[in-house]
Amino acid sequence: TPRELQEHFDRTIEREQRIEPRDWMPDGYRKTLIRQIAQHAHSEIIGMQPEGKWITRAPSLRRKAILLAKVQDEAGHGLYLYSAAETLGADRGELTEMLLDGRQKYSSIFNYPTLSYADVGVIGWLVDGAAICNQVPLCRSSYGPYARAMIRICKEESFHQRQGYELLLTMMRGTPEQREAVQDAVNRWWWPSLMMFGPPDSESRHTARSMAWKIKRHTNDELRQRFVDMTVPQAEALGVTLPDPELRWNPERGHYDFGEPDWDEFRRVIAGDGPCNAERIAVRRAAHEEGAWVREAAVSYAAKQAERAGR
Ligand code: ACO
Fold first, then answer.
1. pLDDT tens across 150-163, in order?
2. Concatenated DSSP letters of 158-203
3. Could you tell me if 259 and 158 are in contact, meaning their C-beta atoms sit under 8 angstroms apart?
4. How far is the CA of 208 from the CAs of 7, 37, 66, 203, 217, in angstroms?
5. Cα 197 to ligand 1 centre (Å)
């Protein structure tokens, strides 16, 4: 009966066991997961653009090989995540349509421009660092396919973060111009990185429900604090200044205090009005249209294979 199904679901969540694709689940749980996983997948795919544009302008063969590998990893992450969304009954083509016509979101962070090679390092350090902070707890998310995808994604993100930090260390040991480029990139990416964790808890419409379902394990503000605490000592080791005059250690709380991100800017960016939103979607749309022949060829090949197998 419906009541028994609901009770079985609740018990599974309560006992920290995983919900799997064939299990019964409430409609809202399925919808929340599709929204979050699709948004996450779109972010990985759109996230290839800001760094991808530097592949042809990498300063050495070594940097080029590293960046190429990193951007390819992001394509891979997008694909595992679309597959995870498909286990919930979502259609990949439809999800792409929803991204292109603005019905689904992707992370605010990828709407900012990359102005120098230092940005590649800062994206690795801060953006991928924030992604790891947010995603490690998702390895314990209650939905099996999502949690399992996150394990591999987090391992790769950790490589991305280190390559960024290593790039920045190298630049900080270089010329005054290189050090300035790093500081400039840090100034531009710091606040948008804090916004990646989502709106403040008081404005987060999904957190309470998602935490009760154990999809999310921490609130947006908890993870933002964890990221700040982790990053301040790294900034000191690197020799850069984080652009927040209110940033200081609070011994009573045992955490760093920090300033308030510009939430109006955040709202504008997720509503489509950030510095690069139009460009990101236009590039994604063109890639989708130019790839139509590949999808048609794959469908036609599959049909021929099925026909041969049927004979
Ligand atoms: N960028 C764009 N939209 C955002 C962001 C952000 N940084 N943060 C929150 N939002 C949106 C939410 O999607 C939601 O909008 P919707 O109802 O239209 O979907 C709205 O703002 C309110 O936010 P919350 O209620 O806090 O939403 P949620 O509980 O989903 O929390 C969070 C947001 C923390 C981003 C969560 O979805 C999550 O952990 N997602 C998985 C990680 C992820 O997507 N990472 C992508 C970037 S990292 C990378 O790819 C390198």
1. 999 999 999 999 99
2. HHHHHHHHHHHHHHHTS-HHHHHHHHHHHHHHHHHHHHTT-S-GGG
3. no
4. 20, 18, 39, 11, 10
5. 7
Find the largest Cα–Cα distance for the chain. 75
Q: Which atom of ligand 1 is nearest to the CA of 36?
A: 37
| pTM recorded for the entire structure | 0.96
Q: Is the dihedral of CA 221, 30, 36, 102 positive or negative?
A: negative
Spatial neighbors of 200 by CB under 8 A, at least 6 apart, are 220, 221, 263
Ligand 1 center to 301 CA (angstroms): 37
Instruction: Spell out the residues 6+ positions from residue 159 whose beta carbon is closer than 8 angstroms to its own.
Output: 70, 73
Mutate which of 218, 219, 270, 280 for ligand 1 pocket (most atoms within 8 A of beta carbon):
270
Give tens-digit pLDDT for 219-244: 999 999 999 999 999 999 999 999 99
Question: Which residue, chain included where needed, has tokens 């630049």?
Answer: 171
| Residues 262 and 191: beta-carbon distance below 8 Å | yes
DSSP 127: I
Mean pLDDT of 187-209: 98
